[in-house]
Amino acid sequence: MAPEASDRKKRKKIAIIGGDGIGPSVTREAKLLLDVYREKAGLPIDLWELDLGADRYLRDGTTFPKEIQIAIQRECSAVLLGALGDPRVPGLEHARDILFGMRFGYDLYANVRPVKALSDKLVPLKGRAAKDVDFVVFRENTEGIYVGMGGQFKRGTPDEVAINEDVNTRKGVERIIRAAFEYARSHGHTRVTMADKSNAMRHAHELWLRVFHEVRAQYSEISSDHVYVDALCLYLIQDPSKFQVIVTNNLFGDIVTDLGAAFQGGLGMAASANVHSSEPGRVALFEPVHGSAPPLAGKDIANPFAALLTVGMMLAHLGWPDEEKRIERWVTRAIDEGQCTVDVGGTLGTQAASSWLRDRVTSEL
Ligand code: NAD
Ligand code: IPM
Ligand code: MN
Fold this sequence. Notes:
Elements: H1 3-9, E1 12-19, H2 23-39, E2 45-50, H3 54-60, H4 66-75, E3 78-83, H5 93-103, E4 110-116, E5 134-140, E6 150-153, E7 161-164, H6 170-186, E8 191-196, H7 204-216, E9 223-228, H8 229-238, E10 245-248, H9 250-264, E11 271-275, E12 284-288, H10 305-318, H11 321-336, H12 350-364
Parallel strand pairs: 1-2, 1-3, 3-12, 5-10, 8-9, 8-10
Antiparallel strand pairs: 4-5, 4-11, 6-7, 11-12
Bound molecules: nicotinamide-adenine-dinucleotide, 3-isopropylmalic acid and manganese (II) ion (MN).
């Protein structure tokens, strides 16, 4: 038996964390879809729901217990996360412990964020259609300004100082740039763009530029270019169709993918994966790009499609790429037929939009 086939026979355990705000309601819909795959299609997946997030933190102080972190690492193939962030926890300490506990703790260095418009209706740029919006951002996910190095001095006085260090290691920069090129090669893409700010950040981003030139030399069949991130934002708006794979650091990747989400119909349509690219067997984290959107919480209006498309990315990662295509196809139909939430031109609530799609998927399985 081919290793791939035997792999697929093994049961896969998926941890599910709804989190805060709209997180639990969109994750509930994602879980219902996974239930269909488990019960109707017989996919060998086991779901493990975890009570983590602001409610739990405010109740008993728990953020991300060490034993849960270890159990996920040992037992799970994937984690599905809704969103974290709650106005009752303004310091976001629970969110950082959980989110960075997984991104950093499991060394998930590639945050892969596809920017793909599924329908012409969703593209807000003048004269552009869905065919013009199809690229992937490889965001470095374990370093940069996110590591939390720094501090405050003389806080609250007129002389106060606040510092966040931007940490860039040779290993970290090289592996994300290489992951972007490997992805381009394996997906038949012909262009990789690296975005930095080496004109201003001449220590940290000179490293990015130098490593980029070294790595690109090993992928001579792929054309590659370097742009400053400010110009990248301009070029993206002018003509997103020029881009195929973009690789950048943690902070710029975060910002550029919210911009990218606008080309896809908003944050309700943007899915993402956090993976350790070179070791696909290890646990990976899947989450919509959006946050907890507190004003939408509890109203049955949040778009569940980002979470459902994220289920698709997760199933592809676990060995069922056809299911990602199936989910994407039905999301596209839902948008085109108006069977969707208001943010993408429909009239349905979260649950109704999700169950329309789930019924179609179910009847095909
Ligand atoms: P957000 O992504 O929650 O919302 C930004 C905008 O997008 C809002 O207008 C919101 O209404 C809209 N939006 C987001 N998701 C949507 C959906 N599914 N359907 C329809 N509209 C949607 O970002 P924010 O307002 O800057 O942050 C809110 C909280 O979420 C903060 O605490 C932030 O730190 C946190 N956050 C968490 C994550 C995560 O858990 N990975 C990601 C981003 C933000
Ligand atoms: C994201 C979010 C997070 C990030 C926040 C909540 C720290 O914006 O996942 O895109 O900046 O990575
Ligand atoms: Mn973000």
